[in-house]
Design goal:
With 364 residues, the protein is of the alpha+beta class. It has an eight-stranded antiparallel barrel. The two termini are 30 Å apart. The protein folds into two domains: 214 residues, no CATH class; 136 residues. The protein is built from eleven helices and eight strands. Helix 1 runs antiparallel to helix 2, helix 1 packs antiparallel against helix 7 and helix 8 packs antiparallel against helix 9.
Length: 364
């Protein structure tokens, strides 16, 4: 059992992730329904005006969730996302291309809302052109979610992405099949485009976000990459000429705490931080187990520590949990072993960690 403060969720972080996923689902449903309502099919159970009203309300709900998603991303403060980044595409210092695509989708939704409010003054033809342009925000938003989202490689996000693609693809093909007045070449071209687009997105994902190292290639600032300490399962590298900790040391540690749940319902907690004093360096604590009231019943753990100025990775596991104290035993490929004693204070609202770490070499 771990103290409650150690596992307090970061509200803004989870709200940002949750609203982003819900926005994508709502936008997918809105686009699919909008495509279907343009077809000539009739239904006594679902007349066209009812489908049109449902489509309108789904779109407005999607816009509301997107606005919350944007605001919580800015307020979170972990990634350097400014207000201007949410309105002007491709100017952000954080993953500029992939965050910029999210901005493009957001701007298209804003244009859709504004032109809908001014529909009577703009005329039906201009409104309809803007309305169809707004459908482009769906594939843009999907690529944004896969290119920027922290859950892109997780199982549930892959299910969401594939499900969204299948739903929109089915809607487009259904419209092509049931429409009565479309020219044959146009219908064929639409069907081919509907098949090529998800294939292209899939190939891009496999060669980009689906591979390790995407965070660096996507344009994540170096200071944030420093928090992504080498995973506990990483291969140990050769040491450099810089001396490794051979005596006891004490250092201050500051960092962040993150929580997530996997598909099996297990809670995964990651505490990453940077050491000031002693040999310096970066460290990471991974804890996994069944969530319970006030914490988690730990079933697995991992700890990694990389002293500053070296390429040596100490890896190991947590041996003792006692309130705010975390004791770990780690070792390196060069035969060195350390005992690390963390005493941590958690700011649950900000999702930050501060405290001290005492290190001592272990013989044998």
């Amino acid at each position: 059992m771990i103290a409650n403060t150690l596992f307090s969720a970061k509200a803004l972080w989870y709200l940002t992730r949750g609203t982003g996923i819900v926005s994508l689902l709502l936008l997918t449903a809105s686009v699919a329904l909008g495509v279907l309502t343009t077809a000539r099919g009739r239904s006594h159970r679902w007349p066209r005006f009812a489908l049109g009203g449902l489509h309108k309300h789904l779109t407005l709900l999607a816009v509301a969730f997107v606005v919350i998603h944007v605001l919580t991303t800015i307020l979170d403060g972990y990634a350097p996302v400014r207000i201007v980044d949410a309105l002007v595409p491709f100017v952000s210092r954080y993953r500029p291309v992939w965050l910029g695509l999210g901005t493009v989708a957001f701007d298209l939704l804003i244009a859709l809302v504004i032109t809908s409010l001014l529909r009577a003054r703009l005329g039906h033809r201009l409104w309809r052109r803007v309305h169809w342009l707004a459908y482009a925000c769906w594939p843009v938003a999907l690529v944004h979610a896969l290119g920027t989202g922290s859950d892109a490689r997780s199982g549930f996000m892959l299910i969401v992405g594939v499900g969204a693609v299948v739903l929109v693809l089915a809607a487009v093909l259904a419209r092509v099949w049931f429409v009565e007045d479309g020219a044959a070449p146009t219908r064929v071209a639409t069907a081919v485009a509907a098949l090529v687009c998800p294939l292209a997105i899939g190939l891009w994902f496999e060669s980009g976000p689906g591979k390790t190292g995407w965070a660096r290639r996507a344009g994540t600032p170096q200071r944030l990459l420093a928090h992504r300490v080498t995973p506990v399962s990483a291969t140990v590298r050769k040491t450099t000429t810089v001396s490794l900790p051979r005596t006891r040391f004490a250092a201050r540690v500051r960092g962040r705490i993150r929580e997530s749940n996997d598909l099996n319902g297990l809670l995964h907690v990651v505490i990453s931080g940077r050491l000031a004093g002693g040999p310096g360096g970066v460290t990471r604590i991974d804890l996994r187990g069944q969530p319970v009231s006030g914490g988690v019943t730990m079933s697995a753990s991992g700890v990694s520590y990389v002293p500053a100025g070296t390429r040596t990775v100490y890896t190991g596991s947590v041996t003792t949990l006692a309130g705010k104290e975390v004791v770990a035993s780690v070792s390196s490929g060069a035969g060195g072993r350390l005992q690390l004693v963390f005493r941590l204070a958690i700011d649950s609202r900000a999702g930050t960690v501060a405290g001290t770490v005492d290190g001592a070499p272990v013989s044998g």
